[in-house]
Design a protein that fits this description.
Length: about 140
């Protein structure tokens, strides 16, 4: 496993976009209520032989109608470039890009969202771990 990790490198993840708005402080901001509506979207923005640009977005609403029912809404996206060596087979690359790359980006989003909720004087939302292996099985 450690050898496989040495075959992949990534650029410092960057915040691609962020939207955070407190809507109604009278509605529940309990993390267990908020987390029920969280959606995680991973996408490959660009891909070539030895690198890919991966983006991960986390949000708690889909449409403008959803916004009225929430104490706060957010959409946070991070992106990083992942590079790998020539000697890695396609199956390993696909698995890494579907599972490990988004998991790494989620750790950055988790920190950003935690800071935003704390700064807004809301109950701090610490995103739980997410099993990205489901993404791998959707191929």
């Amino acid at each position: 496993m450690a050898e496989q990790q040495l075959n992949f490198r990534f650029s410092s993840p960057q915040l691609s976009s962020t939207f955070f708005s407190v809507m109604d402080r009278n509605l529940s901001d309990d993390p267990s209520d908020i987390i029920k509506d969280v959606k995680i979207i991973s996408s490959v923005k660009e891909r070539s032989d030895n690198k890919a640009l991966i983006s991960l977005a986390v949000q708690n609403f889909d449409t403008p109608d959803d916004i009225d029912t929430k104490s706060y809404v957010f959409n946070i996206s991070y992106t990083a470039e992942f590079v790998w060596k020539d000697n890695i087979n396609k199956e390993q690359i696909d698995s890494f890009l579907a599972v490990s790359a988004p998991a790494l980006l989620l750790s950055y989003i988790r920190n950003t969202l935690s800071n935003l909720t704390a700064s807004a004087k809301l109950s701090i939302l610490d995103l739980p771990f997410y099993d990205f292996r489901e993404n791998e099985n959707k191929k």
